[in-house]
Design brief:
The complex is a heterotrimer of chains A (about 240), B (about 190) and C (about 350).
Chain A: H1 9-22, E1 35-36, E2 41-44, E3 48-54, E4 59-62, H2 64-85, E5 88-91, H3 94-99, H4 101-119, H5 140-146, E6 150-161, H6 163-175, E7 188-196, E8 202-210, H7 218-228, E9 234-235
Parallel strand pairs in A: 1-9, 2-5, 2-6, 3-6
Antiparallel strand pairs in A: 3-4, 6-7, 7-8
Helix pairs in contact in A: 2-7
Chain B: H1 2-14, E1 21-24, E2 29-32, E3 36-39, E4 45-48, E5 56-59, E6 67-74, H2 101-112, E7 118-129, E8 132-142, E9 149-159, E10 162-171, H3 175-188, E11 191-192
Antiparallel strand pairs in B: 1-4, 2-3, 3-11, 4-5, 5-6, 6-10, 7-8, 8-9, 9-10
Chain C: H1 23-39, H2 48-62, E1 70-74, E2 81-83, E3 88-92, H3 93-98, H4 102-117, H5 120-140, E4 151-152, H6 161-177, H7 183-198, H8 216-227, H9 236-243, H10 247-256, H11 260-273, H12 277-290, H13 295-309, H14 315-326, H15 330-343, H16 350-360
Parallel strand pairs in C: 1-3
Antiparallel strand pairs in C: 2-3
Helix pairs in contact in C: 2-4, 4-6, 4-7, 6-8, 7-8, 7-11, 10-12, 11-12, 12-13, 12-14, 13-14, 14-15, 15-16
The chains are: A alpha/beta (about 240), B alpha+beta (about 190), C mainly alpha (about 350).
Chain lengths: ~240, ~190, ~350
């Protein structure tokens, strides 16, 4: 949600905050949260992205160049977002990532729970439809290490049909006289999450799970990344 | 390992849906099976699935995070993993009357380590379960699939030849420390009908 | 098929990292990420001394390729070692438990290095793709379900028979060049066969083998290759000293596998070679947990043998107590449980055992 500055900025921001708590909270946002403070420091946790190609016979093949491209595009999109929102970002060194590993693993488990129970079909009645999960104090390990106030985690698994598979699919459709409908290709599944490092609260979460999308080319990747970062909180 | 990633991706999409559902938990005491009554104080959710039979599972934060697994009256000769899919000719884990606490704990260890996860017993002591002679145990559980280190606590007894037990497992960071007292209360409040 | 004598194989130059856009590049990058996970895994064995020992061995075997190799010891109770095209090697505790000496370990690791040096993984990926295309063509005129099946290419099991032969040939050369006795190579498969044949429900492929297929042919081939290059050390004493601190854990893992017949075959072999308390205890546990006719007697015999050998795990006495109690031999049970508590006063289950003693009475 973007804050319009055409009328007195703070006043509008206050109105919007009030308005957003009165209206139904977005599925992607924790209760009572809607915007980041301007200048907030966000550490970008190493993205866990893997892109695969599916060959004609359905063999999943890891594609390093695609994965590296996707990582680059993701970082570029984050950079854009950060400039739009006036955030400052930090990246973890490999050693820091090692030290943060248990918290990272914990986040992974919580993220899976959110994916399944908040965005999936197996809702937890006790959560009452709210995005209400927290890693707790251990998140401060990351804060102490980096001086950041928030952390952005992300995880993407994606597979793409190779040209030969596309051709095979089309042939199938033709041979079966239209009875077999070619599927677009692979699964694009993933999540991005924003965590308050002081409390461990998951402030914003988005899950992606669809049969389309493309992270390999910068222009097509932008669409996927917009989808992943949908409803990413603005700043005030 | 790659296959696991794929399975996880599919799980993300499908939400482990194999004829499962999650229901709200009523406040106040509730019957679990024929002879056990428990009061689940707190934000519990009841996960139902044939695959976990004969156990029942409750969770607060979701299945990938924490689980309270309850066995209410497992009879001698019955498997504690009766509903689980059979993988590669592995035998079912059967409870037998006459099993001592350490053997019962070994059964639970077998259940939790099926996929290659590890289980380390940290404590085993006598404990009164609804006034019956029983046991309490603590363990460390490392999940194979994602390396999350969890802590576990269990309470059990064999009453009239039937096994009753509660086991709670949650990550060692944040969740287990936060909930273990609550779980102990639930175990203390459990009542067996004789 | 004619076997190429080991002498004709030459070690290739060190590899350079492939372009990321290639299929090999994809595999490398994937294995790099896998390696990061491994480094952080709770299942990694972090003991510096053992780590250094195995790493030095691998370095020695890999010769000029030593700087490219990184070794990870994993606590997994299966016979396996694997090497990825990016130079990452995994050695599982199930393998380290089963080898009689360092030469046998060198044979297996040399075999994996052989796959690495001959770049078999990439060939395998290309082959899988090629064969799968064929499968799709067939399925167009037959079962359509095949199209939905997703296989995964980036695994390092299931090498072709030719690959396995080549890796075996290379391993003998590497062993010989590093000063190990190559006749030990076929011994491993001999030992492993003993184990797997013991299983009445033997299924193929046996998971015990990890990534390696069944071995009768290989035993013969390796024996023949070794004959052509006799000599070298086996380093039995050095290896057994190095793994002694880990035996309790690794044997406990083995018993927990629940494959009683395989465990018995393994333990019988180990006891025949070098009887010691840890082995007797593990075999006793295997019998006790199997609980077939005569097993409890056999278990007690083994527990007593462990105690006689000295240095037995305290659990030996706990298990004795368990059996005696089940047989209603109260005084014997009492003595055993007490001995357990003497040897392990702060055992996790000390409180429970004390309550058993109270039950048994004075």
């Amino acid at each position: 949600m973007r804050v319009s500055t055409s009328i007195g900025g703070t006043f509008v921001a206050a109105l919007l905050v009030v308005a957003s708590s009165a209206a139904a909270q977005s599925k992607n946002l924790a209760p009572g949260f809607s915007v980041l403070p301007k200048g907030a420091r966000v550490v970008i946790m190493p993205t866990d992205i893997e892109l695969f190609s599916i060959s004609a016979g359905g063999v999943l093949e890891p594609k390093a160049d695609w994965t590296e491209a996707a990582s680059r595009h993701f970082r570029a999109a984050m950079l854009e977002k950060k400039q739009d929102l006036g955030l400052s970002t930090i990246e973890l060194t490999a050693q820091q990532a090692d030290e943060a590993d248990e918290v990272n693993a914990l986040h992974g488990a919580v993220a899976r729970a959110i994916s399944i129970h908040h965005f999936g079909t197996l809702a937890l009645p006790s959560k009452q439809g709210r995005l209400d999960w927290s890693l707790g104090e251990p998140a401060r390990v990351i804060q102490n290490m980096t001086g950041a106030d928030y952390a952005l985690f992300s995880w993407v698994r994606d597979s793409y049909t190779s040209d030969e598979r596309k051709a095979a699919m089309v042939a199938m459709a033709v041979l079966s006289l239209g009875r077999v409908v070619p599927t677009a290709g692979g699964l694009q599944t993933g999540y991005a999450s924003l965590v308050d490092l002081k409390t461990g609260q998951v402030l914003w979460f988005n899950r992606l799970s669809r049969g389309s999308g493309d992270l390999r080319e910068p222009d097509k990747a932008k669409e996927t990344l917009e989808a992943l970062l949908a409803q990413f909180p603005g700043t005030k | 390992m790659r296959r696991l990633l794929l399975i996880m991706a599919v799980l993300e999409l499908a939400g482990c849906a194999v004829a499962t559902k999650i229901e709200k938990v009523d406040s106040g005491p509730q019957k679990v099976g024929e002879r056990l009554e428990m009061t689940l104080d707190g934000a519990w959710n009841h996960f139902q699935s044939a695959q976990i039979a004969p156990a029942r599972i409750w969770t607060m934060e979701g299945l990938p995070v924490d689980e309270l697994r309850v066995f209410a009256g497992v009879k001698s000769g019955e498997a504690i993993d009766a509903g689980a899919p059979v993988v590669g000719g592995a035998k079912k884990i059967e409870f037998r009357a006459g099993m001592q606490p350490d053997e019962i704990v070994a059964m639970f260890e077998g259940l939790y380590t099926k996929g290659g996860s590890t289980f380390k017993l940290d404590k085993l002591e006598p404990w009164s379960f609804s006034g019956e002679k029983g046991f309490r145990f603590e363990f460390t559980f490392v999940r194979k699939v994602d390396g999350v280190v969890s802590l576990g606590v269990g309470y059990g007894t064999v009453s009239k030849g039937e096994l009753f037990a509660l086991l709670y497992v949650a990550p060692r960071l944040t969740f287990f420390p936060r909930n273990k007292d609550k779980v102990e209360e639930i175990a203390r409040g459990a009542r067996l009908k004789m | 098929m004619e076997e190429t004598p080991p002498a004709q194989w030459r070690m290739p130059e060190r590899f350079t990292r492939p372009e990321t856009a290639t299929d090999e590049g994809g595999l490398w990058a994937l294995m790099d990420r896998e390696e990061t996970r491994l480094r952080r895994s709770p299942f990694l064995i972090r003991d510096a001394a053992l780590q250094a020992r195995v790493h030095n061995m691998v370095c020695h075997l890999a010769g000029a390729h030593c700087p490219d190799v990184r070794v990870y010891l994993m606590r997994t109770p299966f016979f396996n070692a694997s090497m990825a095209p990016n130079g990452m090697m995994q050695v599982w505790s199930g393998l380290m438990l089963r080898v009689d000496n360092e030469a046998q370990l060198a044979a297996v690791l040399g075999h994996e290095i052989g796959h690495y040096l001959a770049r078999h993984s990439v060939e395998k990926l290309r082959s899988a793709k090629a064969h799968s295309s064929t499968a799709t063509v067939m399925s167009m005129f037959g079962a359509l379900g095949a199209l939905g099946a997703l296989g995964v290419a980036a695994s390092f099991s299931g090498y072709s028979r030719d690959h396995e032969r080549e890796a075996d040939r290379i391993s003998v050369t590497l062993m010989r060049d590093a000063g190990y006795d190559p006749t030990q190579a076929s011994k491993i498969w001999e030992n492993l066969l003993l184990e797997t044949k013991a299983n009445p429900n033997a299924r193929t492929p046996n998971p015990l083998f990890g990534s390696h297929p069944a071995p009768e042919e290989r035993m013969e081939t390796l024996a023949k290759l070794a004959q052509a290059a006799p000599g070298g050390a086996s380093q039995e004493a050095e290896w057994n000293d190095a793994v002694k601190p880990f035996l309790r854990d690794w044997l406990a893992d083995e018993v927990k596998r629940g494959q009683r017949e395989e465990s018995l075959a393994l333990l019988n072999r180990m006891i025949a070679r070098a009887p010691q308390a840890a082995y007797f205890f593990a075999r006793g546990e295997t019998y006790r947990l199997r609980g077939a006719e005569g097993d409890f007697d056999a278990a007690v015999e083994d527990y007593l043998a462990a105690a006689a050998a000295g240095g037995e795990p305290p659990e030996t006495h706990r298990s004795l107590g368990t059996v005696y109690r089940a047989r209603q031999q109260a005084p014997a049970a009492k003595a055993s449980f007490q001995r357990y508590l003497e040897l392990a006063p702060s055992a996790p289950d000390a409180a429970m055992i004390k309550s058993y003693l109270e039950e048994i009475g004075i």
